[in-house]
Amino acid sequence: MRSMKTPTSSLCRRVLVACMMMFGCLPAFAVDKPIMDAVVLSAPWIVSGAVNDQISASNSPRIFAAAGLPSGVVLNRTTGALSGKPAVAGHFNVRFAAGNAAGWGPSIVVPIDVLPLPDKATGRFVGLVDRYQLLDRDLGGKISFLIARNGTFTGAITLAEKLYRFSGRLDAKAGETPKATTLVQRGRGISPLTMELLIDPVAGTLAGNVTGLEPDGITVAAATFSARRSSYGSSRRVAPELVGIYDHTLTPPAWVIGDDRFPQWTSPGVLIVRYTGVLSWVGRLPDSLPVTATVYLADDNVFPMHLLLYTAKGSAQGWPQLTSSPTGSYLSGELGWFKHPTLPYSSTGWNFQDGFALHNLTVAGEKR
Fold it and tell me: What count of other Cβ atoms lies within 10 Å of the Cβ of residue 27?
């Protein structure tokens, strides 16, 4: 009996391709395995920077694959689009390949460098919120950030007596200033604030603003803030000549002297500076009100002092600084001091219940 001839592999392949074409699985020209095109990145990759790149191949690829991508970057296996934000810096040898009905084509290895965020764009930042009538009732506030090396951040902002927490992620581009936009939730039934920030990675400073609607749903309120990097701690110590105890005074400006609408007294205080950059402030204001505070020292040896006073009817805030010279170490600066009227009058209310206008107290002190 005659044996049946077996179809050649070429014929089998033609039949397979014809079947796939019939069912819309393969275009008529895709008969060879894909060949990867050269990968050209649209811009250098940087931690927390948006990736918008594309890989491609000849011979009508139907699927793509990648191995060794940095964490945070993903490949769309259908389109070949690369997206996401790298979470780690370093050198990566990424293997790309493409396939179709004919099989997987040869892979290529593409070296990709992911730049780190600038050192002074990460870490702890501490700062102040400026005084605005709507958002903080002219009382100002304070703000802090903790920015991780992968570009994510958490923080807290105080507006008058209200404390809000927030989180987000930087938007970085190689050679440009890192920035971010995030929402600050204010609780149920209140629209969130929009926060925008910009980091100066050379100076180690941060500036930005928060905006949002007032409860009437119409009025737009805004406040600006600034912060400075504070990297002191167990691994970086404050200069020994700055560490110690400072006796200081708070002195009213000359233009209020003799005006009984303002406190007149020059008040004493003590500042304790530790190697870790944690400062303790104890003293009195010129109206005899006792105050205490714990703050962080920024890298340029200034610190954000914000004191919410008189059950959120007043405040004092500013950026005192520490300096040293051959003759000693000194504390200097100013604190803006303000008080709303504390009406109705109360026998338990503090002095100057009519309040007083904003004026600057001079901070002056010397290390013991």
Answer: 14
- Note the pTM of the prediction, 2 decimals: 0.87
- CATH class, 240-367 region: mainly beta
Contact between 114 and 49 under an 8 Å Cβ cutoff? The reply is: no
| CATH superfamily of domain region 119-229 | Quinohemoprotein amine dehydrogenase alpha subunit, domain 2 (2.40.128.120)
Tokens of 358: 């904003």
Closest CA to 268 of 249, 291, 290: 249
What is the rounded CA–CA span in Å between residue 45 and residue 113? 7
Domain boundaries, the chain: 9-115, 119-229, 240-367
List per-residue pLDDT tens for the chain, 368 residues long.
344 343 444 444 544 444 444 445 544 444 699 999 999 999 999 999 999 999 999 999 999 999 999 999 999 999 999 999 999 999 999 999 999 999 999 999 999 999 999 999 999 999 999 999 999 999 999 999 999 999 999 999 999 999 999 999 999 999 999 999 999 999 888 899 999 999 999 999 999 999 998 777 777 889 999 999 999 998 899 999 999 999 999 999 999 999 999 999 999 999 999 999 999 999 999 999 999 999 999 999 999 999 999 999 999 999 999 999 999 999 999 999 999 998 777 655 568 889 999 999 999 999 99
CB 348 within 8 A of CB 321: no
